[in-house]
Amino acid sequence: MPEVIFPGPEGRLEGRFAPAPRPRAPVAMILHPHPSSGGTMNNRIVQELYKTFQRRGFAVLRFNFRGVGKSQGVFDNGVGELSDAASALDWVQSFHPEAQTTWVGGFGFGAWIGMQLLMRRPEIRGFISIAPPANLFDFTFLAPCPASGIIIQGEQDEVVTAGPVQKLVDKLRTQRHITIHHDTIPKANHFFEQEMPQLMGSVDKYLDMRLAPDSPIR
């Protein structure tokens, strides 16, 4: 997973990139949790999502938002970070313009940014949102949500509370033409410290279904 430096809206952005092993491979981008809480592209959940898509033959990028690690700029309360994500996706797609499918995955703050990005980028056909902070940030921009995906929550998450996440899921499920899966991992806290196998098992089960040739969800 070579280190990469690529241009962002406020200077260079630092990332790790796994090129696709074959032509026309799908693309995935993974977004990290809140920088003010120590979130970086080396977060454990971000790394596991990255490895999961890499094993499945995707071209995968994870990167540091502005002001994190070697990425230039300063934290911008989500506005600039959304621009960073758009630039990062442009960079990946410059190597894989023939990719037919694009996915975005995110944890916490990264899930919020990722779901905003899919509203702007119609090529994103699937998402994985882990502990989307529906109690901390506004998700009303998902009107309507343009892609199917999965939202995963820890049963004992002390940061992102269950009620607002359930309301978000219920709202998205009223929309036509998309399918929203929702998994709750028993006993898991916000960081899934003891339940990482169960978390990634949920991700893998969902990807097995979505990426199957006869998947009912496109």
CATH superfamily grouping: Alpha/Beta hydrolase fold, catalytic domain
Total helical elements? 5
Low-confidence spans? none
Number of beta strands:
8
Strand order of the largest sheet: 1-2-4-3-5-6-7-8
**Structural class designation:** alpha/beta
Give the total of domains: 1
The average pLDDT is 96
Beta-strand percentage range: 15-25%
Largest sheet: 8 strands, mixed
| CATH architectural category | 3-Layer(aba) Sandwich
Helix content: 25-40%
Would you kindly provide a written description of the structure presented here, covering whatever features stand out?
By secondary structure, the chain is α/β, with parallel strands linked by helices. It has a single domain, classed as Alpha/Beta hydrolase fold, catalytic domain (Rossmann fold, 3-Layer(aba) Sandwich), CATH 3.40.50. Helix content is 32%, strand content 23%. The protein has helices spanning 44-55, 79-95, 109-120, 162-173, 196-211; strands at 3-8, 11-18, 27-31, 59-63, 102-107, 124-130, 148-154, 180-185. It has an 8-stranded mixed β-sheet, sandwiched between helices. Strand 7, helix 4 and strand 8 form a beta-alpha-beta unit. Helix 2 crosses helix 3 (109-120). The longest helix is centred in the middle third of the chain and has 17 residues, at 79-95. The chain is globular, with a radius of gyration of 16 Å. The mean pLDDT is 96.
